[in-house]
Specification:
The protein is α+β, with helices and mostly antiparallel strands and 248 residues long. The protein has two domains: 166 residues, Gyrase A, domain 2; 63 residues, Elongation Factor Tu (Ef-tu), domain 3. Helix content is 15%, strand content 33%. The protein contains four helices and 14 strands. The strands form three sheets. It has a six-stranded antiparallel sheet with strand order 10-11-12-9-14-13. Strands 2-3-4-1-5 form a five-stranded antiparallel sheet, covered by helices on one side. A three-stranded antiparallel sheet has the order 6-8-7, with no helix packed on it. Strand 3 and strand 4 form a beta hairpin. The longest helix is centred in the N-terminal third of the chain and has 12 residues. The model has no long low-confidence stretch (mean pLDDT 94).
């Protein structure tokens, strides 16, 4: 995966440093990969990534487009922490079926197989977008944008947030959404007849009802306003329908 970058975070304070910043519990590294995000102080999405054990250090597997900004943010946050942050030349591979030695199961959903970091040969002929649509998995820079709230994007279902770990940047907003509100918007799978560009507005009649993102055959991922997403909708030349009986 040439579109991924691995940052190496090392030093005696590495775990404690990350624990106060990311949405998931860093101690879960003892069991394998940890899916997590960094948020803005206002609780909005900044980046999502996988944390992986790298001996005495921690690896951070992130979309290459987001890596420079997150490296800069981590450097800003470290203050006097005994932490070093550097980019590595390691590359990511992924595949389905039994994970090869040294690879890790994808913690978001078993349907997404495994991720390797030590040259394991991956599966080149997998339609990963189709798997993401089937499992309702958002992608960095596609469904996940700076306007996203992670609970609306399914991070609790995807094992990307831990409400028992203690504080992290943006935690108060996330906790409030979890405990004091009912989500009125969110990422869901929809049926699509036709096609439309990623980011097309979904209309219910003449009212905006959401945005259509990744499509795979006759299904797609859409961010919907639930109170308007009823009956047949349109996105450009495509017809869109959300079956609430199959919503996750």
């Amino acid at each position: 995966m040439s579109d991924r970058t691995i940052l190496r975070i090392s030093g005696p304070d590495a775990r404690d440093f990350l624990q106060g910043l990311v949405t998931n519990d860093v101690s879960k590294l003892d069991q394998g990969l940890v899916y997590a995000a960094m948020l803005t102080p206002q609780g909005k999405y900044r980046a999502d990534f996988f944390l992986l054990p790298m001996g005495d250090a921690i690896g951070l597997d992130i979309a290459s487009s987001l890596a420079p900004g997150i490296k800069q943010a981590l450097t800003m946050y470290k203050l006097r922490s005994a932490v070093e942050i550097e980019e590595t030349d390691r590359r990511v591979s992924r595949g389905l079926g039994t994970a090869p030695e040294g690879a890790f199961a994808d913690p978001r959903d078993a349907r997404l197989g495994w991720r390797g970091y030590d040259g394991q040969p991956g599966d080149a002929n997998v339609d990963w977008d189709a798997l993401r649509v089937a499992a309702v998995i958002p992608e960095s820079g596609v469904e996940l944008t700076p306007d996203s709230y992670i609970l609306e994007m399914g991070f609790e279902r995807l094992n990307g947030v831990d409400f028992k770990k203690g504080c992290f940047v943006g935690q108060e907003v996330v906790a409030r959404m979890k405990h004091k509100t009912v989500l009125r918007k969110g990422l869901v799978q929809v049926a699509v007849d036709g096609s439309a560009p990623i980011g097309s507005e979904i209309l219910a009649g003449d009212k905006p009802a959401g945005t259509l993102f990744t499509q795979a055959a006759d299904a797609g991922l859409a961010y919907l306003r639930f109170d308007r997403a009823k009956g047949d909708m349109t996105a450009g030349d495509a017809r869109v329908h959300w079956d609430t009986d199959t919503a996750e």
